[in-house]
């Protein structure tokens, strides 16, 4: 299989970096010049067929703008695989790309890395293949869980956690530390 060249790409398609849309630059079978190119898959990614070969639109956008194929993966900063605006695309390692994934459907807490146990909630992250324990919390209201989510999704949170032994200051988490249920019941 021969890789698509930048010259051939610009012959057949025009890319608008502001809108992220590819349009045909020439008339083709079943396609007219100026029509939007590609189709959206069930998972949201846009596929474009050129010379009997299918390509992801975000990878074609990278080739169109930089002049070379991406060395690694291309990440959509906003998490929307259909949004191929140039400012939304960035080169990423597989690890960085996985960090930008949405929460899974079977996630009961609604927060990445937060799990419920019989003694409250606990949080972990995975850095370089190693799980890091962030702490255990007794959460009583949804607003406190949301503040914990803001802390975990902060871009510098991973660097902060990895630079020191893992323990969260109470002032930064804005959550109560874990307390046995007996102590919690007596304070209510």
What does this entry show, briefly?
This protein has 188 residues and is of the alpha+beta class. It contains seven helices and ten strands. Helix content is 27%, strand content 25%.
What attributes does this structure have?
27% helix, 3-stranded antiparallel β-sheet, 188 residues, 7 helices, alpha+beta, disordered C terminus, single chain, 25% strand
Cα Rg: 23 Å
Q: Name the beta content range.
A: 25-35%
Structural class: alpha+beta
The strand order across the widest sheet is 3-4-5
Distance between the termini: 68 Å
The total count of strands amounts to 10
Spatial shape: elongated
Largest beta-sheet characterization: 3 strands, antiparallel
How would you explain this protein's 3D organization?
Helices cover 27% and strands 25% of the residues. By secondary structure, it is an alpha+beta fold. The strands form four sheets. The chain has a three-stranded antiparallel beta sheet. Strands 8-9-10 form a three-stranded antiparallel beta sheet. A two-stranded antiparallel sheet has the order 1-2. The N and C termini lie far apart (68 Å). The model is unreliable at 140-188 (pLDDT under 50).
